[in-house]
Amino acid sequence: MLEPVLFALFSVSAVVFAFNVVFRRNAVHCALHLVGVLLSLSGMFVLLNAQFIAAIQILIYAGAIMVLFLFVVMLLNVKGEAPLLTPGAWKGFGFFFALIVFVELLYIVLSQGGTEGTPAAAVPLPPGFGSPAEIGRILYSTWLFPFEVTSILLLIAVIGAVVLAKRKFA
Amino acid sequence: MDATFLIASAVKVLVVLGFVLLGVPLIVWMERKVIGHMQDRIGPQRVGPFGLLQTIADGIKLFFKEDIVPDGADRVVFIIAPALPVITAFLALAVIPFGDTVRVAGHDIPLQITDVNIAVLWILGTTSMGVYGIVLGGWASNSKYPLLGGLRSSAQMISYELAQGISLVSVIVMTGTLSLASIVRQQEHLWFIVPQFFAFVIYILCGIAETNRAPFDLAEAETELVAGFHTEFSSMKFALYFLAEYANMMVVSGIAISVFFGGWHGPFLPPVVWFLIKLSLFLFFYVWLRATFPRLRYDQLMAFGWKVLLPASLLNLTVTALVVGLTA
Amino acid sequence: MQTLSVPLEAYQLVAALLFTIGLIGVLVRRSALIIFMSIELMLNAVNLSFVAFSRQHGQMDGQIFVFFVMSVAAAEVAVGLAILVAIFRNRETANVDEVHLLKG
C-alpha cells in the first residue's frame, strides 16, 4: 500500500521543514523551508482527496504569498538575528508554554475527546469529492455569503496595503 | 495500474524529455538565424550545415567551463536555484496534450503524459513556482545586479500571473472543465481563439512576461543590470537557466495551442504533426517579437500589467460569464 | 483511493506538531518577519486538521473552510508586510522588541 509510505514521507518532511522555519537565523532560509512545509502539506491534501485545495495551496500559498514574503525579506535585507538559543527568561517561558499547549493537543487527539460524532472509520466518498466542480457548487450555494464577505475583506486589504506602502501620508 | 500503462507512461515521459532537450538547441539556432536575417545579417553558419550544430557546440563549451561559486554566495541555494525553473517547466509539460488518443496493440493511449482534472490549476501552480529559481538565483549570488534582477522578476511575475490566470478562467467558464484534453476536444469545430480573442491576446502578453522574454526581459536587462539574475552563474548552472527559458517558452506555447488554437486538431495531417507545426509557429512568433520591440521601462511594465491587462482580463471574464449565463 | 489507510489521529498528530512548532516560533523569535512565517505555519497546521476531518466525515465543508483561511492569510500577509515595510522605513529594524513605543 502506497498511502502510509507517502504519508510518512510528507509528515516527516513537513515537521523537519517546520523546525527549520523556526530555528534558522537567515530569514530567506526560513521562508524557503516554509515553502517546503507548504509543498509537503499539499501532498497530504492529495492523500486526503482534496485535489483542488492541494492545487491552490501551491498556486496561492507557495506561488504568491511566499514570493511576496521573499520579496520583502530581500527588499529590507534584514540581518540575521542575534544568537537564537541564548538563555533568556522569556524564551524559556515561551518553550514551556508551547510544551503545555502541545501536551494539551496531544491529550485531545489521543483521548479522542473532541471527536464526538466523528465516524470511527472514514466514510465512503461520494463521486467528485474534492474536485473543483464540487467545491464550486458548494462555495456558490451554501457558502455564498461568506465568499462575498471574503472578497470585501480582500478589497480592504488591498486598499490598506496601498495606503500603508505609500511613501508620503497626505 | 497495469503494465501497459506503466510502459506507455515511461515511453511518453522519455519522448517528451528527449524532445525538449533536443528541441531547445534547435530553437536557439532558429532564433539566432531568424534574428540574424531580420537584422540583415546571416547568423551562425560555420558549424555543421547552415550552422545547425552551432548551439550543440556552445552547449559542449558550457559543459567544460569552470564552475564558479562566488565568495559570499549562499552555496546551497546557489546550487539549487538553477535547477528549479527546469524542474517546474518539465512538471508543467506533463499535462500538455500533444496528440489525440491512439490505439497501439489493442490499448488506447492518450498522447499526453497525464490528464489530471485540475490541469489548468496545475500549470498555473508550477509556473508560479518557477519564479523561485530566478529570485533565489539573484539573492544567493550576494551581488548587487543579480539581486535587483531577482526582485524585478518576482514583482513582474506576481503581477502578470494574475491577468494570465484570469484570461484562462474565461475559457474555463466556456468549457466547464479544467482538463486540457477535454478543452482541446471541445475545439474540434471552432478554435477558441475566435470567441476568446481578447483572452488570447492577454494570455500571450502575460506568457511572454512570465518567461522573461523580450520585450519584457527586465530581469536580465543587460543594458542596465549586466545580465540580471544570472550574472554570477557560469558553466552548467548558466546552461540550466538557458534551458529553462526555452522549455518555459514551449510550455507557454503549448498551453496557448491547447486552450486557444485547437490543440492537435487540423485537417489532413496527423494530430501530432499539427501540434508541432503550431508549436514552431508560436516559437517563431516569440523570436519575431524579440527582433521587433525594444525593451519596456520597468514602471511602464508594471503599469501595463496592473492598469491595462488586469482590468481588461476581468472585463473579458465578466462579459464571457454574462454571455455563458444568458445563453445556457 | 476510497479507503483511508492512515488513521485520522495520525494527521491530527502532525497538525498538532506543526502548530506547536509555529507557536514556539511566535514566542521565541524576535524578528517580525519570522513571527509572521510562524503564524502561517500555525494556520497551515489548522488547515491540515480541517482537511483530515473533512475526509473523515466525507463532507467538503472543511475544504471550503481551508479556502477561506487561505484568503484571510493572503489579506493578512499583504497588510502585515506593508506595515513591516512602513516600520522598517522609519526605524530600520524588524525586531519586535525595538518597536514598543506608540510614538514614532
TrEMBL record, chain A:
Pfam families: Oxidored_q3
CC terms in the record's Gene Ontology section: plasma membrane
Keyword Cell membrane included in the entry's annotation: yes
Protein name: NADH-quinone oxidoreductase subunit J
Chief localization: membrane
Family designation: Belongs to the complex I subunit 6 family.
Top-level enzyme category: translocase
Catalytically driven reaction(s): a quinone + NADH + 5 H(+)(in) = a quinol + NAD(+) + 4 H(+)(out)
UniProtKB/TrEMBL annotation, chain B:
One Gene Ontology term from the biological process aspect of the record: aerobic respiration
EC number of the protein: 7.1.1.-
Catalytic activity: a quinone + NADH + 5 H(+)(in) = a quinol + NAD(+) + 4 H(+)(out)
InterPro entries recorded: NADH_UbQ_OxRdtase_su1/FPO, NADH_UbQ_OxRdtase_su1_CS
UniProt topology in membrane: Multi-pass membrane protein
Family, as annotated: Belongs to the complex I subunit 1 family.
Protein name: NADH-quinone oxidoreductase subunit H
Species annotation: Eiseniibacteriota bacterium
UniProtKB/TrEMBL annotation, chain C:
EC numbers: 7.1.1.-
Subunit structure: NDH-1 is composed of 14 different subunits. Subunits NuoA, H, J, K, L, M, N constitute the membrane sector of the complex.
Cellular component, GO, one term: NADH dehydrogenase complex
Spans through the membrane: 12-28, 33-53, 65-88
NCBIfam families xref list: PRK05715.1-2, PRK05715.1-3, PRK05715.1-5
Role description: NDH-1 shuttles electrons from NADH, via FMN and iron-sulfur (Fe-S) centers, to quinones in the respiratory chain. The immediate electron acceptor for the enzyme in this species is believed to be ubiquinone. Couples the redox reaction to proton translocation (for every two electrons transferred, four hydrogen ions are translocated across the cytoplasmic membrane), and thus conserves the redox energy in a proton gradient.
UniProt key word Nucleotide-binding: no
GO molecular function per UniProt: NADH dehydrogenase (quinone) (non-electrogenic) activity; quinone binding
Catalytic activity entry: a quinone + NADH + 5 H(+)(in) = a quinol + NAD(+) + 4 H(+)(out)
Predominant location category: membrane
UniProt-annotated location(s): Cell membrane; Membrane
Protein family per UniProt: Belongs to the complex I subunit 4L family.
Keyword Cell membrane: yes
Gene3D superfamilies per the UniProt record, alphabetical: 1.10.287.3510
Membrane topology according to the record: Multi-pass membrane protein
Source organism of this protein record: Eiseniibacteriota bacterium
Entries under InterPro entries matching the protein: NADH_UbQ_OxRdtase_chain4L/K, NUOK/Mnh_C1-like
BP term (GO), one: ATP synthesis coupled electron transport
Pfam family, one: Oxidored_q2
Keywords: Cell membrane, Membrane, NAD, Oxidoreductase, Quinone, Translocase, Transmembrane, Transmembrane helix, Transport, Ubiquinone
Cross-referenced HAMAP family: NDH1_NuoK
EC class: translocase
Protein name: NADH-quinone oxidoreductase subunit K
Residue ranges that the Swiss-Prot or TrEMBL entry lists as coiled coil: none
